[in-house]
């Protein structure tokens, strides 16, 4: 009898997230300064230019409820995405189903690793009984995803690609800075959609999205960077950018 594949339990993250939009010159200047206090994430060191590729397939309801909750700044909200670090089906690469949301000022992310061969069960509600049998009954990501698919009718809407250069704190609590560039989006139903079915558009041409993630407080040295470079905290969502570029919600946004 064939054994069931053992899958990893969920991982949870809760933190503050601040985002800033930079031009190329300012991004380079800030990156040079933070090197005095931070080091490159080990996942980036393996890759060319110390960046890694990120692809996300985002879900939303037929009336774009998740999109409008973000645009309207609803304080308590959540959405689902499938995340990969490659644009091709590779059995040995990581693949996650993630539930990301906000509770007032803090953001949270709960994810569970999925096997590539199980992707078809996540994308087909008629196979949810089989999907549930492959994961723990207490897996909140799977359970909530199934609930939202059946009750709220969420479905795949948009694919967002970008390259990330991440820095982490040398010591102490979580303090992470990521430089995200080349943000592209396309309508899509499968995270490994064939290229012929995709129509990518630039979301922030020539710009870098700087994301700051921290648990408790911002280091004094980064406060100085904010002041010296006159950084303005912005509400930037790659999901919302991708939805807008793909034309979703446009019929009700005027």
The main sheet comes to: 8 strands, antiparallel, barrel
| Number of contiguous helices | 9
Number of strands: 10
- Helix-strand sequence: EHEHEHEEEHHHEEEEHHH
Rg measurement, Å: 19 Å
Instruction: Classify the beta-strand content into a percent band.
Output: 25-35%
> By helix and strand content, what is the structural category?
alpha+beta
Helix content: 25-40%
Give the integer mean of the pLDDT values.
91
User: Which segments are poorly predicted (pLDDT under 50) over 5 or more consecutive residues?
Assistant: none
What does this entry look like structurally?
This protein has 254 residues and is of the alpha+beta class. It is built from 9 helices and 10 strands. It has helices spanning 24-34, 42-45, 65-71, 119-122, 128-133, 140-151, 220-228, 238-245, 250-253, and strands spanning 11-22, 38-40, 52-60, 76-84, 95-103, 106-113, 155-169, 175-187, 201-202, 208-214. An 8-stranded antiparallel β-barrel has the order 1-6-5-4-3-7-8-10, surrounded by 4 helices. 26% of the residues are buried. The model has no long low-confidence stretch (mean pLDDT 91).
